[in-house]
Design goal:
By secondary structure, this protein is of the alpha/beta class. It contains 19 helices and 24 strands. The longest helix is centred in the C-terminal third of the chain and has 20 residues, at 401-420.
C-alpha cells in the first residue's frame, strides 16, 4: 500500500516524465481504490493546491458514482465525460477543463484519442494542459483485441445492398480480398468502409458486432485463422492508446495472474510493477469438479441436467446460505438458470452474475458461497487477438500452441480471481481473505487444480465429486463417474461392463472386476440404486 501511495503522489506531482505503466496488482479487497479515494480527499481538503489534474478511467458508469461518493466530491470538484447524450455527462461541472478530477470510461478514452495524441485530446485537459495523474482502473491492454468471422461478413451485403449499395460493394471488395489469403497468413486491409447509422440499424446485433470489429482494424495488420466452430476468423487489435498517455497508473488485481502483461514486457513495453506481498487465501476453500461445462456442453440436455443436479445438490445442502452463481450470459431462450432455480429450495437466496459482468462490484461481498457453473472459454483466435493487443505484433504463421495455452491459462486465472472475489473472500484483515467456499465446474485444458492454486495462494484446493462418490478415489472414482454418467445423464437402465471398461481405458476384465467388488464401491452402487450382474450393471428396480 505504501508503494502505491508514493506512486500516486509522484504521478500527481509530474515528477516522472518517463513513459511507463505503473502496475499495481494488489488483490481484490486489498485497498487499491481506497488509496485513490484517500488521495483525492486529501487534495480536496487542501483546495487542490499543487494539483495538476486527475483523469480516472473506469470500466462502468456505476463505478463513477461510487468514486464520487467515496472520495466525498462536491459538484464543483469533478466532471464526467462519457458517451454523447448520456445523462451522466450532467454530473459535476459543465466545463471539464475547470474540474480538478475528471471521470471517463475505457471506451470513451479510446474513442476520443483514436488518431490523435493524448496531449491533443483537449476533452481531458485541466486548465488547458494534459492532466498529470492518469489512473486506469481494472484490466489494461494498450489496444483492444478483435476477432471477425468471415462467414458472418459474407451475409451482411445482402442486408445492406437495398439500403446502401456503396457500403455493400465496399464489403464485397473486402471479403473477396480475404478469400485469396491462406489460413495462418497475415493481411492488411487498406480499404475504406462506411455506412450511415440508419443503414447499420438494419443489421442484427451479431452482424453489427462483426461490422464494427472489421471497421476498427481496417489499415491494421491481421492474421487469418481457422476455428472448428467459427470457420475462418480474422484476428487483430485496434489502434493502441497514444504513447503519451503514459506515464499512467494501472490498478489491476489480475496483474499477477495474467499473461498479457508478460507479453507486453517481453516486447519491451515499459512496465514498473509495484511490489506487493500478495493476499493469503487460507480461509478460502475451492472445490473443483473436473467436468466439461462449456456453453456448448450445457446445450446438451443430458449434460445440462447432470451439471444442474450436481450444483443444486450442493446448494440445497446449505439451505440457510446465500449463493453467488457465476454463469454464461443467456442467449435467446436459454433456460439454464430457470432450471437451476427450479431445483433449489428458496431460490431467492441466489445471486447471479454472468461472465463479462463479473468484476468491479462489491454488491456480493457478504456472500460466503460461490458456484461457478462453467468457465469462460475463448477461441484460439480470441487468445491470439489478446496477444496481438498486448504485444503490438501480429505473429507470423500464428501463435504456437504453448503460447496460446499460456494466454488461455492467464485469462482463466484472471476471470476466476475476479469472479470469486466478488464474494466474502474479498473481505478479511491483515492480508488474509474472508471466509468463503467456492465450487468450480469446468475443464481448462491443463491441470485445473494447479491453476486454481496459482490463482489463490494458500487456499485449500480440493476435488469435488457430487452424487455420493466422495469417498472413492483413483480408478474407482473414474468408474463410478462413468457409470453414473450413463445411468443418470444418459438415461440408461443397464450398462454392459465391457462398455464401462473401454470408456475408462481399462485393459482387462479382471482389472474392472477388482474395482467393482471393493466394499466401498459396492456401498456406492447400493446408494445409487444399482446392482451388479454377471456382464452388466443395472438398476435395482429392473429385473
Amino acid at each position: 500500500m505504501k508503494e502505491l501511495k508514493v506512486a500516486i503522489s509522484q504521478l500527481n506531482a509530474a515528477s516522472s516524465s518517463v513513459p511507463q505503466l505503473v502496475l499495481s496488482s494488489m488483490d481484490p479487497g486489498e485497498g487499491k481504490s481506497s488509496a485513490i479515494w484517500d488521495f483525492i480527499r486529501s487534495c480536496k481538503d487542501e483546495g487542490f493546491r499543487d494539483h495538476h489534474g486527475a483523469l480516472i478511467v473506469l470500466s462502468r458508469h456505476e463505478e463513477i458514482r461510487s468514486y464520487v461518493d467515496q472520495a466525498g466530491l462536491s459538484r464543483h470538484h469533478y466532471a464526467v465525460t462519457v458517451a454523447e447524450g448520456d445523462a451522466m455527462n450532467e454530473m459535476g461541472l459543465s466545463d471539464p477543463d475547470a474540474a480538478p478530477v475528471i471521470f471517463t470510461t475505457h471506451e470513451k478514452l479510446r474513442r476520443w484519442t483514436t488518431g490523435r495524441s493524448f496531449a491533443d485530446a483537449d476533452k481531458f485537459h485541466y486548465l488547458g494542459r494534459p492532466r498529470t495523474l492518469r489512473i486506469w482502473d481494472e484490466s489494461f491492454l494498450a489496444a483492444q483485441p478483435v476477432t471477425v468471422r468471415l462467414d458472418m461478413l459474407k451475409g451482411i451485403p445482402a442486408v445492406l445492398r437495398p439500403l446502401d449499395p456503396k457500403a455493400a460493394q465496399g464489403l464485397d471488395a473486402i471479403t473477396a480480398a480475404l478469400e485469396s489469403v491462406e489460413t495462418r497468413q497475415s493481411v492488411t486491409l487498406s480499404h475504406q468502409l462506411s455506412a450511415c447509422p440508419s443503414t447499420l440499424a438494419a443489421l442484427s446485433g451479431a452482424q453489427k458486432r462483426e461490422w464494427d470489429g472489421l471497421v476498427s482494424i481496417l489499415g491494421r495488420e491481421a492474421i487469418i485463422l481457422r476455428d472448428n466452430r467459427m470457420g475462418r476468423v480474422l484476428a487483430s487489435a485496434t489502434a493502441p492508446l497514444p504513447a503519451d498517455f503514459q506515464p499512467a497508473l494501472v490498478l489491476d488485481a489480475s496483474g499477477r495472474v495474467r499473461e498479457t502483461y508478460r507479453a507486453m514486457e517481453e516486447t519491451g513495453a515499459p512496465i514498473r510493477r509495484l511490489p506487493g506481498a500478495g493476499r493469503n487465501y487460507s480461509r478460502l476453500t475451492v472445490r473443483h469438479w473436473d467436468r466439461a461445462s462449456s456453453r456448448s456442453a450445457l446445450n446438451v440436455p443430458e449434460t445440462r441436467r447432470e451439471i444442474l443436479e450436481g450444483a443444486a445438490s450442493v446448494i440445497n445442502a446449505a439451505p440457510a446460505e446465500e449463493w453467488l452463481i457465476i454463469h454464461h450470459q443467456a442467449r435467446g431462450a436459454d433456460t439454464v438458470l430457470d432450471e437451476l432455480k427450479a431445483q433449489v429450495a428458496n431460490p431467492e437466496r441466489l445471486h447471479f452474475v454472468n461472465w463479462g459482468r463479473h468484476n468491479a462490484t462489491n454488491a456480493y461481498r457478504h456472500v460466503r458461497k460461490v458456484m461457478v457453473l462453467s468457465l469462460w472459454h475463448l477461441t484460439d483466435a480470441a487468445y491470439t487477438a489478446h496477444h496481438i493487443a498486448a504485444s503490438g505484433r501480429v505473429p507470423s504463421q500464428g501463435l504456437d500452441r504453448e503460447t496460446i495455452s499460456r494466454i488461455a491459462a492467464g485469462e482463466h486465472r484472471h476471470n476466476l480471481l475476479q469472479a470469486i472475489c466478488r464474494a466474502n473472500v474479498r473481505n478479511g484483515a491483515d492480508g488474509v481473505c474472508g471466509d468463503c467456499e467456492a465450487y468450480v465446474i469446468g475443464k481448462t485444458g491443463k491441470d485445473t487444480k494447479a491453476l486454481l492454486a496459482e490463482t489463490f495462494p494458500g487456499a485449500a484446493i480440493k476435488d469435488w465429486r457430487p452424487f455420493g462418490a466422495g469417498e472413492l478415489t483413483g480408478r474407482s472414482l473414474d468408474v463410478a463417474e462413468e457409470i453414473r454418467r450413463r445411468f443418470v445423464a444418459g438415461g440408461a437402465e443397464r450398462v454392459r461392463k465391457i462398455d464401462i471398461r473401454k470408456a475408462v481405458g481399462m485393459g482387462t476384465a479382471p482389472e474392472l472386476a477388482q474395482v467393482l467388488t471393493r466394499p466401498a464401491f459396492k456401498a456406492w452402487l447400493a446408494g445409487e440404486g444399482l446392482v451388479l450382474g454377471t456382464k452388466e450393471v443395472r438398476r435395482a428396480d429392473r429385473v
